[in-house]
Amino acid sequence: MNGFDALTLARLQFGANISFHILFPSINVALGWLLLFFKLRYTQTGRQGWMDAYAFWIKVFALSFALGVVSGATMSFQFGTNWPGFMRVVGNVAGPLLSYEILTAFFLEATFLGVMLFGRSRLSERAHTLATLLVAFGNTLSTFWILTLNSWMQTPAGFKMVNGHAVVASWFDVIFNPSAPYRFAHMLIASGLTEAFLLAGLSAYRRLNGDASEGNRLALKTGVYAAALLIPLQFVAGDLHGLKTREVQPAKLAAMEGVWRTERSAPLLVFALPDEDTHSNDHALGIPGLASLILTHETTGEIKGINEFAQHPPVAKVFWSFRAMVGVGTLMFLTSWLAAWQLRKRGTLSSATLRILTLMTFSGWIATLAGWYVSEIGRQPWLVNGVLTTAEAAGGATPAMLMSSLTMYLALYAALIAAYVAGLFHMAKKAACPTGSPRLQEKQEKFACR
Predict the structure, then answer these.
(1) Which residues contact 339 (CB under 8 A, 6 or more apart)?
(2) Using CA atoms in the order 13, 15, 20, 24, what is the torsion angle rounded to 10 degrees?
(3) Residues 52, 54, 57, CA angle at the centre, nearest 5°?
(4) pLDDT > 70? residue 52
(5) What is the DSSP letter of 109?
(6) 161 phi/psi in degrees, rounded to 5
């Protein structure tokens, strides 16, 4: 990283922070509702398997919640240290929205999470179920406020500039800015898919390790069917979001598709190497007319090229991030539908499918991060689109200070992610330890059961 200037290092540092943080809300937003589903199924049917699934996955929720809160607090410090211009110019908008998110996270989620974890033996079943509902609702509301702010930064509305400061003219227009509904729906479904594959992947891992319990079987089926249901919905939500992006952020859309010159019947580029110097794509491989059909719903639809814009995002980064998101999403679609078909036809999954699901346990993380990079890098050079550039918001930290703190963050986050992933698989392996089997001793030695 030698030779990087202060602005680049500050961006890398915040990018590392947000990349680490987003991993855990992307799990917990949907997991809260899945825990409620497990609880309701238990109260409706009386089957202990549903409560066993709840008991295991609430531990995953608590661990993810803790890491999400800690990493979120770290980001808030950077607004003052690395990006003082952000709060100085748009603090009248960002401050209240961030406060609403903090109030939701700490006064609703955290409070009732304690009730969920430790209150079941002290409360009625109905009261404990209500606590689970409030945690799920609070988690979703917290996400709503964060995405409202992020969407406003992408498509600002409902404000006016007074002496260089953004002043709210309409909170309704701020909250329900042009991209907010599309971004919120897209992110909620992304969270559902991330959790569905985590649920299916860890459950498949437990099954491969000999866990044939009812609770694990129900969790596995829930994960597979949820993924198979949500992935087509995500395609629809993504299409609607893309249409809106073409309207409100055409430069980002042009970078996503690698369209340099305005054209009709634009091809969908499966592969290309965008060249910023020549404003062209090297080694392009495309499907004629398909990009126009997808983005305008007309085979001869016009897509504005990057050359139309005086300022545009770095094309290659946006282009390949978008393809990474779509590529992983396609794998998720094929895997979930294969697994769902096997469950419907055979009532069980083959060993090969179980292994594939295990390998794709964290595929939702990859797709979510790729999509987030499309969104955030695609907004550059603006921090708040048309209002405040990233360079204008940067502070006065020196490259040496930023380099040292960035190195520390990267090392810490790498260790925490490794520990988190290892911890989840350790929990899954421990839960998979068989009991009462004639081959118990052999299994204990093989899987290190305790």
Answers:
(1) 200, 224, 227, 228, 349, 353, 357
(2) 140
(3) 110
(4) yes
(5) I
(6) -90, 125
- Of 371, 345, 113, residue with least CA distance to 242: 371
Contact, 105 vs 32, CB < 8 A? no
Q: Residue written as tokens 């299994």?
A: 443
DSSP for residue 261 = S
Pair 116, 347: CB distance under 8 Å: no
The two three-digit tokens of residue 85, written as one number: 């211009």
Asked if 294 and 253 count as a contact pair (C-beta separation under 8 A), the reply is no
Query: Beta-strand (E) ranges in 103-261?
Result: 159-162, 165-168
- As given in the structure block, the two tokens for residue 240 are 């609607």
What is the number of residues in the chain?
450
First to last CA, the chain: 45
Strands (E), 121-219: 159-162, 165-168
Q: What one-character DSSP code corresponds to residue 438?
A: T
Tell me how far apart the alpha carbons of residues 408 and 413 are, in angstroms, rounded to a whole number. Answer: 9
pLDDT tens track for 278-302: 888 888 888 888 888 888 888 888 8
CA–CA separation, 80 and 86 (whole Å): 9
Residue type, 71: S
Q: Which of 115, 240, 162, 213 is nearest to 432 (CA)?
A: 213
Q: For residues 244 and 246, what is the distance between their CA atoms, to the nearest angstrom? A: 5
Residue 334: is its pLDDT beyond 70? yes
Report the half-sphere exposure of 25 (CA within 13 A, side-chain side).
Answer: 26
Cα-trace Rg, the chain: 23
Cβ contacts of 419 within 8 Å, gap of 6 or more: none
Mean per-residue pLDDT for 246-257?
A: 89
Kindly report the backbone phi and psi dihedral angles of residue 287, in degrees, each rounded to the nearest multiple of 5, phi listed first. -105, 115
Cis ω before 381 (30° cut-off from 0)? yes
Q: CB-based contacts of 229: which residues, under 8 Å, 6+ apart?
A: none
Q: How far apart are CA 180 and CA 157, in angstroms?
A: 11
pTM for this predicted structure: 0.89
**Residues whose CB falls within 8 Å of the CB of residue 58, separated by 6 or more in sequence, listed in order:** 35, 116, 117
Mean pLDDT of 316-331: 93
CB under 8 Å to 344, separation ≥6 — which residues?
Answer: none
